[in-house]
Amino acid sequence: MPDEIHKVGQAQSIPLLKQFETWLVKSGQRVLPKTKLRVAITYCLIQWEELNTYTKGGDLDIGNNRAERAIKPFVIGIIGYLAIPPMVLTSVPYFIVLSKPQTRTG
């Protein structure tokens, strides 16, 4: 099954990547050097081998969905923490100390 997925991925991806590379080279020659588009085209051409890495082996996926799903709980936790007003955060330790039940000794 992974070999079949890899073969189908190569059959569909490699021709598209070659067309994209051709477009990058042609467009890079026509775009002014200091524009954002030229910077993006140059960056993509410099990273071309890394972009094509997923077509060489069947174990890599072009997307990063697995990585994003793995870090999602942490990101949600950080967002929740940042949503708490600072005044509440500073008063929480005092609330915990003041709400501690008193115990009788002796």
What does this molecule look like?
With 106 residues, the chain is mainly α. The chain has one domain (2-98). The chain is built from six helices and no strands. It has helices spanning 2-30, 36-46, 48-51, 53-56, 65-82, 86-98. Helix 1 packs across helix 2 (36-46). The longest helix is centred in the N-terminal third of the chain and has 29 residues, at 2-30. It is flat, with a radius of gyration of 27 Å. The model has no long low-confidence stretch (mean pLDDT 76).
Shape summary = flat
Q: Round the mean pLDDT to the nearest integer and report it.
A: 76
Biggest β-sheet description? none
Measured distance between first and last alpha carbons: 73 Å
Structural class: mainly alpha
Q: Helical amount among residues, as a percent range?
A: over 70%
Q: Which consecutive residue ranges, at least 5 long each, have pLDDT under 50?
A: none
Give the H and E element order. Answer: HHHHHH
The count of helical stretches stands at: 6
Q: What's the β-strand tally? A: 0
Beta-strand content bin: under 5%
Write down the domain tally: 1
Structural Rg: 27 Å
Structure summarized in a few sentences:
With 106 residues, the protein is mostly helical. The protein is built from six helices and no strands. The protein has one domain.
Features:
75% helix; 106 residues; 6 helices; flat; mainly alpha
Give me the secondary-structure topology.
Blueprint: H1 2-30, H2 36-46, H3 48-51, H4 53-56, H5 65-82, H6 86-98
Helix pairs in contact: 1-2
